[in-house]
């Protein structure tokens, strides 16, 4: 059980929550995630990155986008509600050291997991360039927080409604062409974005770390549902990751696997929304 | 064997019992041998392959008594030798024959904590029943006294009649024991340490307790009620339970001792690391470890409409492997709507490690067995979804070190079978999470934790048992190790006073 201490709506479908979880707050490191359930009998287990933690308050922060039934349901929870199941911190923490010049690329909701990593990299003495991107201005999140960390800050929107009208790969390519080129890139966002970031940096041989958000069940290495091809090896994202060398990840396979249950998930989401709508009508 | 209705089996037993009961004390060995072995009543195969309810329904009272009368009560008691925890089998069966169920359960509880579970899932035909004198005399292990079914009968009788006794707990010792993992090994340690008056906390990574009993073995073989009943007993004894707690992540193993003040820790984290075949195409969409498939179906209840966890919609399924896990996965796939389910096994039926009853039930439910074959490559379509499996054929060669005839590949025997789902059930390794986060804990090269004869690990105050020590083994062995660990812990804590 974990109580919701704070809730904020960022955009139409992006929410921030602070959850009471003192042990997780104490143990967590950048790059780790939790798994939660909105119902511990029939709910599914979904992984969400820990965006921040406060050991004094004994809380962790999650930022999530409504993409399916469980996240939709989570968005209906209010302050003081109890989340029936929360487990973590899971995954291998990000390896943080002073690499030199680091570029952090965050796309859409991926900015949330990127935030603690950028923070830790900055603290370790890196020169941090942050590129954040979204489809449109309203979908940009954590702009001020990221700006506060960055030595250099670049915003892109697909539609040009804010910052540069470009995909994040455009400024990334420019940075790779500069001297000195970046010592490392960290890219977190939709799989397709991470794939293209990796393709962008490949010719320049800039090490590019990506954080994978595969399907998971247990999150402890027990099921293999989260497995991905990394080079010639098969890795379990929940324990070996979530971060991997983007130049070695088989993104096409990963994206196919993410879509394993697309039809069923869409159906669950539709049923949930329709039911909620009916309930509202009844109440009205 | 054709299907016989449970009522009919009960009726037959009733009339036979009327015949034998009056002369029971004077029955000759030859006469006992003539009493027909009692068949387990089951749900009709056609009906059950579409539901999740338990397949084996359990003996009627008369069937149990009649089966118990078959026991020769022989002085040699070979059956006890075959039992990993040395249950006093002839004695509990004698009580059933007398209709004394309360005494029968008491005998079982002397040595086993989970008779309702073990009666259902133990490979009896390789343990107690293999050594049964009656089976030997009748030259058929299937005609041995059905010890497992009788064990189950007594345990069910206790539970159904509300006779479950909460074990007495000694006065508080002020000592704290942490139990990591709530599989059979952990549950037993919790009970045995709590009985001594220690404060016991179970830490479980999942949101539900029971380990493999919950997430692996399906309801149709081991109903959740039974596990719930055991857990209620532990709660009533005052065992504290922390679910959603991954030791090694939420808290380091050592920190349980150093920061949280536990005086002893038991690690019973099981063999939860799925082994894959390492063949081409194994990461295509539609290939699952049996762990994943069964966890979705059991723990996450994907078979129920209102469950959020999806399960892959399959029409033709291929399960790779020949153990209990493969049987469970194949039968589950049938229940989840797959029209065709193949089990592909490299050797022959004789070598299959699965419980005999499960193989029989799987066949009755329409699972097709393909022996002396193996998968070599999974074939996918342009969207990376499984459309088939390339298999190769084997023949049996000379016996290998284990005495089993080793399968030998037949050259150029490749052929493709059309399936849309592949479930890999070729074994489980030990999950490295605890050992990776506890470097001082000695493990062997397979990652199994090393222990001494009291189940103590290389680290003071830390004990381990069950699959994490043995490698993927059995419920009864896990339970036995739990018992021994608890003894070790209780002794250590008593000496420390
Ligand atoms: C599908 C299937 C069918 C089987 N059928 C049979 C059968 O018919 N007969 C038979 O005798 N045996 C059978 N077995 C084997 C049997 O279930 C196991 O040998 C037995 O359950 C092992 O018990 P255990 O207590 O060691 O571990 P498990 O039952 O594996 O329990 C371990 C528990 O520890 C938890 N855990 C793991 N890591 C951590 C951590 N870091 N922190 C906290 N908790 C953790 C896990 O979530 C799990 O709940 C089967 C196994 C499977 C998978
Ligand atoms: S989520 Fe099950 S192994 Fe990673």
From TrEMBL, chain A:
The keyword Iron-sulfur applies. [2Fe-2S] cluster binds at residues 223, 226, 238. Keywords: 2Fe-2S, FAD, Flavoprotein, Iron, Iron-sulfur, Metal-binding. Its cofactor is [2Fe-2S] cluster; FAD. Transmembrane segments: none annotated. FAD binds at residues 63-65. It comes from the Bacteria. Pfam families: DHODB_Fe-S_bind (PF10418), NAD_binding_1 (PF00175). InterPro entries: Cyt_c3_hydrogenase_gsu, Dihydroorotate_DH_Fe-S-bd, FAD-bd_FR_type, FNR_nucleotide-bd, OxRdtase_FAD/NAD-bd, PyrK_electron_transfer, Riboflavin_synthase-like_b-brl. The keyword Iron applies. One of its GO terms (molecular function) is 2 iron, 2 sulfur cluster binding. SUPFAM superfamilies: Ferredoxin reductase-like, C-terminal NADP-linked domain, Riboflavin synthase domain-like. Binds 1 [2Fe-2S] cluster per subunit. Residues 1-96 form the FAD-binding FR-type domain. GO terms for biological process: pyrimidine nucleotide biosynthetic process. This is Sulfide/dihydroorotate dehydrogenase-like FAD/NAD-binding protein. It comes from Paraflavisolibacter caeni.
Automatic annotation (TrEMBL), chain B:
Residues 175-482 form the FAD/NAD(P)-binding domain. PANTHER family: GLUTAMATE SYNTHASE [NADPH] SMALL CHAIN, GLUTAMATE SYNTHASE [NADPH] SMALL CHAIN-RELATED. The keyword Nucleotide-binding does not apply. Its EC number is 1.4.1.13. Keywords: Oxidoreductase. One of its GO terms (molecular function) is glutamate synthase (NADPH) activity. Residues 49-161 form the Dihydroprymidine dehydrogenase domain. This is NADPH-dependent glutamate synthase. It comes from Paraflavisolibacter caeni. The keyword Oxidoreductase applies. InterPro entries: DPD_II (IPR028261), FAD/NAD-bd_sf (IPR036188), FAD/NAD-binding_dom (IPR023753), Helical_ferredxn (IPR009051), SudA-like (IPR006004). Pfam families: Fer4_20, Pyr_redox_2.
């Amino acid at each position: 059980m974990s109580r919701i201490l704070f809730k904020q709506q960022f955009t139409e479908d992006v929410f921030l929550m602070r959850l009471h979880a003192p042990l997780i707050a104490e143990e967590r490191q950048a790059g780790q995630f939790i798994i939660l359930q909105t119902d511990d009998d029939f709910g599914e287990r979904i992984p969400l990155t820990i965006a921040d933690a406060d050991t004094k308050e004994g809380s962790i922060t999650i930022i999530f986008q409504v993409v399916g039934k469980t996240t939709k349901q989570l968005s209906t929870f209010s302050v003081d509600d109890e989340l029936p199941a929360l487990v973590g911190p899971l995954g291998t923490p990000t390896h943080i050291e002073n690499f030199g010049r680091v570029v952090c690329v965050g796309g859409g909701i991926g900015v949330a997991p990127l935030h603690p990593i950028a923070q830790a990299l900055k603290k370790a003495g890196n020169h941090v360039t942050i590129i954040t991107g979204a489809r449109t201005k309203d979908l940009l999140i954590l702009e001020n927080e990221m700006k506060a960390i960055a030595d250099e800050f670049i915003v892109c929107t697909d539609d040009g409604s804010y910052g540069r009208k470009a995909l994040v790969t455009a400024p990334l390519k420019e940075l790779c062409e500069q001297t000195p080129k970046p010592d490392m890139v960290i890219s977190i966002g939709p799989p397709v974005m991470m794939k293209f970031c990796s393709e962008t940096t490949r010719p320049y041989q800039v090490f590019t770390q990506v954080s994978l958000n595969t399907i998971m069940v247990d999150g402890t290495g027990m099921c293999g549902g989260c497995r991905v091809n990394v080079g010639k090896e098969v890795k379990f994202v929940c324990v070996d990751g979530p971060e991997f060398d983007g130049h070695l990840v088989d993104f096409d396979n990963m994206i196919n696997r993410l879509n394993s249950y697309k039809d069923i998930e869409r159906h669950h989401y539709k049923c949930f929304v329709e039911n909620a709508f009916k309930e509202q009508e009844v109440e009205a | 064997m054709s299907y016989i209705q449970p009522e009919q089996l009960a009726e037959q037993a009733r009339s036979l019992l009327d015949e034998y009961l009056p002369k029971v004390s004077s029955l000759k060995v030859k006469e006992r041998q003539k009493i027909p072995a009692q068949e387990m009543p089951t749900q009709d195969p056609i009906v059950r392959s579409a539901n999740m309810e338990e397949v084996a329904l359990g003996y009627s009272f008369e069937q149990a008594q009649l089966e118990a009368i078959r026991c020769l009560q022989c002085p040699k008691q070979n059956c006890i030798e075959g039992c990993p925890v040395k249950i006093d089998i002839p004695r509990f069966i004698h009580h059933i024959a007398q209709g004394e169920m309360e005494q029968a359960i008491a005998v079982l509880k002397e040595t086993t904590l989970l008779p309702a579970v073990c009666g259902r899932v133990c490979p009896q035909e390789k343990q107690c029943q293999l050594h049964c004198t009656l089976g030997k005399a009748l030259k058929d292990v299937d005609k041995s006294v059905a010890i497992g079914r009788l064990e189950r009968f007594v345990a069910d009788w206790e539970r159904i009649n509300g006779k479950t006794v909460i074990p007495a707990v000694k006065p508080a010792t002020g000592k704290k024991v942490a139990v990591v993992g709530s599989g059979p090994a952990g549950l037993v340690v919790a009970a045995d340490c709590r009985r001594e008056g220690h404060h016991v906390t179970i830490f479980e990574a999942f949101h539900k307790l029971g380990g493999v009993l919950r997430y692996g073995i399906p309801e149709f073989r081991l109903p959740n009620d039974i596990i719930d009943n055991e857990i209620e007993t532990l709660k009533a004894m005052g065992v504290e339970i922390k679910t959603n707690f991954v030791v090694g992540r939420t808290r380091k193993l050592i920190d349980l001792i150093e920061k949280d003040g536990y005086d002893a820790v038991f690690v019973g984290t099981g063999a939860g690391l799925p082994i894959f075949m390492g063949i081409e195409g194994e990461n295509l969409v539609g290939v699952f470890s049996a762990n994943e498939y069964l966890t979705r179906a059991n723990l996450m209840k994907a078979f129920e409409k209102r469950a959020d966890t999806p399960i892959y919609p399959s029409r033709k399924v291929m399960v790779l492997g020949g153990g209990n896990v493969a049987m469970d996965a194949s039968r589950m796939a049938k229940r989840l709507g797959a029209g065709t389910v193949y089990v592909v096994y490299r050797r022959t039926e004789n070598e299959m490690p699965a419980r005999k009853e499960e193989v029989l039930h799987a066949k009755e439910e329409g699972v097709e067995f393909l022996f002396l074959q193996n998968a070599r490559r999974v074939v996918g379509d342009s969207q990376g979804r499984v459309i088939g499996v390339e298999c190769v054929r084997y023949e049996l060669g000379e016996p290998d070190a284990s005495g089993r005839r080793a399968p030998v590949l037949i050259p150029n025997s490749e052929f493709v079978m059309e399936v849309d789902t592949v479930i890999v059930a070729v074994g489980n390794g030990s999950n490295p999470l605890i050992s990776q986060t506890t470097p001082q804990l000695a493990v062997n090269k397979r990652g199994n934790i090393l222990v001494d004869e009291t189940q103590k690990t290389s680290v003071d105050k830390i004990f381990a048992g069950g699959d994490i020590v043995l490698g993927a083994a059995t419920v009864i062995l896990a339970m036995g190790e739990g018992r021994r660990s608890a003894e070790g812990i209780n002794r250590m804590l008593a000496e420390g006073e």
